[in-house]
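User: Predict the full complex structure for these chains.
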Amino acid sequence: MLPLSLLALCAVLLVAGAVGSAALTPEHLLGALVKSVRGEDLSTLEAIAWRIRLPRVLLAGLTGAGLSLAGVLFQGIFRNPLADPYLIGTASGAGFGAVLVFALGASFPPLAAIGAPLVAFVFALLTVLLVTGLAADLGGLPTARLILAGVVVGSVFTAATSFLLVAAREQSAGLLSRLLGGFGFASWGDVAALAAFTLPALLLAGAFARALDLFQLGERGAALLGLPVETVKVVLLGVATLVTAASVSVAGIIGFVGLMVPHSVRLVTGPAHARLLPVAVVWGAGFMVLADLLARTVIAPVEVPVGIVTALTGGPFFLWLLRRSRRGPAAGTP
Amino acid sequence: MTLEVREVTARYPARDGNGHAAALTGVTLRLEPGEVVGLIGPNGSGKSTLLRLLTRQLAPAEGRVLLAGRDIGGYGRFALARRVALVSQEPEVPTGFTVREAVAMGRAPHVGLLGSPKAEDDSVVEEAMRATGTLSFAHRRIETLSGGERQRAVFARALAQQPAFLLLDEPTNHLDLRYQVELLTYARRQASQGSGVLAVLHDLNLAARSCDRLVMLSAGRVVAQGAPAAVLDAELLSATFGTRVEALSTEDGPLIVPRFG
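Assistant: Here is the predicted structure of the two-chain assembly.
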C-alpha cells in the first residue's frame, strides 16, 4: 500500500506543480530543481517553478502530512476516532499563540518567525491539557465530552484571536489571511522550518507505532503488558501538539484533515499503526496538495483559503462519521 | 520461582472522604509453579484487590509482594510483564485489529518499547493460538467474535507473554459451560508445563474440580485455604457467604448446593 501511495503522491505533486496561473511542465519543475542545485541561471518559467510553485506545493504537502500524523496520534492515544487537532481545539490554541507573536513581533520579523511555532506550541499544549482535563470521565475520554470541550475551548481561543486581529489594526488583514489557512506566501524558509518540525516528528511517531497499538487495549491493559503508559502519552501528545502548532504557524488553521485522512486510510490498511501511520502521512500530503490546487484554481485569479476547502469536505465527512458511530462500536468509547 | 504476598494490607483512598477502607488485612498467600490455585469468596472480599497487588497496579500499605523472593517493586515494567500475566474480567478488545494482531500484543514485554518482533515471537504467538484453538479465526476482527471466542483470544494473548504466573480474574464470567471447562482446561495445561495459575472463581463447583488448592477470602482476610474438600465446608461457606449451603461429597470433590427458605 505504501509504495502505491508514494507513487500517487509523486503524480499529485507533479500535477499540482504544473497547474496554475502560469502553466508549467514537469521539465520546468525538474529543470528548476537541477539548475538551482547546480547554481545555474533559470528561465522565467523555471524561476516561477523554483520561487513560487515548488515551495507552495511542498509546504502544502508537509502541512497535510503533519496534520494527518497529528490526527492519527490524537486518535490513537485518546482511543477516539473523532479526535482531530481542529475539533479538540488544539489548532485554535496554536492559532492564538501564533497570531499573538505575529501581532507583537511584527516590528522584528525574524523573532516572529522563530517564536511563532514555539508560542503556538505552548498554547496548543495548554489547550490539550485543558480539553482533556475538562472532558475526562472516570473511565476515559468519552467522544461527546471530548468534542464538546474541544469546541468550547477552541471557541474561546478563536474569540481571543479575533480580538487580537481587531486590536492589530493595520496588520490585521495580513494576519487574518495567514490564519484562515493558505500557502500563498510559501517560501523555501517556511518549507525548511516546517520540515524541521515535521520530519523528526514522523520518525519519532513511527518508532512508537507498536506502543500506539497497545494503547488500544486501554491504558490499564497496556500497562499490564509493561508499557510505560504515561511516558508514551507525554511523548506522543507532545509530538502531535508540536506538529499541529508548527503547521498552524506556517499555514494557518486548516481543519478536518487530521480526521478525514486517517479515517479513510484505516479502512484500507486496518488499525495497526505500523501500516496506518506511513500511509496516512502520504495521503495527508496528497490530500492537502490537491485541496490547495483546488483552492487556487476554482475561482482563479482569486484564491480561496484552503481551510475553507477542507472544511467544506470535512464537515459532511464528520457528520457521516458521527452518524455511523451511533450504530456500532466502531467509535471506540461509548 | 514463587509469587507471594506476605502479611499484606491494602487500602483504597476513599472517594467520599470517609477514611481509608481496608480491602485486605494481613493476607499471606504463596503461588508455586505447576499448581492451579482457586481464589474464592463473596463479592467485595478482596479477590480483585489481591490480583491488583500481584500485578503491581496497587502497592501494599503494609507487608510485601514478592516475585522469586524479590520485592515486586524492584522489577522493570517489561520484566514483570514477562513473568506475570493477567486475564482481566472484562478486558478491552482493540477494535479493528485481527485476532492474530491482538494475540501478538502479548509479545510486547519481550519485544520492548521500540523493538520489532522476530521470527521467534511469531512462533510463540502461533503456539499460543494453537493451544487455545483460536487459529481457525486468526484473521477475523476481534470485535466480531462471540464472548467465548473473545475470551480465548484474550487468554491466548496472556499465553503469548510466556508468563511464569498466570492470573485469571473471573475468566469464566459470561461463558457457557463448555467454554468454562475449556478455559480451565487450558489453565491446567499451562500449569502442567510449569506455570503457576491463580484464578478468581465464582463457581465453587468449578473451583473444586479445576484447582489443586483453594483460598477463601472474606472481608479482606483469608478464612480458609487448602484442598478443595477441606475449604468447601458447608458450615464455613454458609458463614462466609451469608446464605445456607449444603456440601454433598462426590467422587471428584464436594458439590455445593444452596438451600432456599
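DSSP finds ten helices and twelve strands in chain B.
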